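Assess the record.
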Amino acid sequence: MLVASPEWIARHGEPQTLEELSQHNALIYILRGRPFDRWSLSLDGVVQQQKVSGTVDERRRRGDPSAGDRRGGHCL
C-alpha cells in the first residue's frame, strides 16, 4: 500500500510508475542500522522492489511503536 496526502500529491504530482518513486521524497526508516530504502510492491501479482530515497522517520529510528502504519504501508 502506498499513501500520500492530497496536498502532497498536489504539490509534487502523483507517481505513475514504480520507477517514478525514486524521484520523490519517500518516508524511510532505519532498523538496526539498516535503512529500509527498498520497497517491495506488488503490481498485477508480480512483486517488484523499488529503491527510494528521502526523509528518515526519526520515531522509527528510535523504535517508537506508535510510528507509522502497522499494516506495512509505504509513505510519500
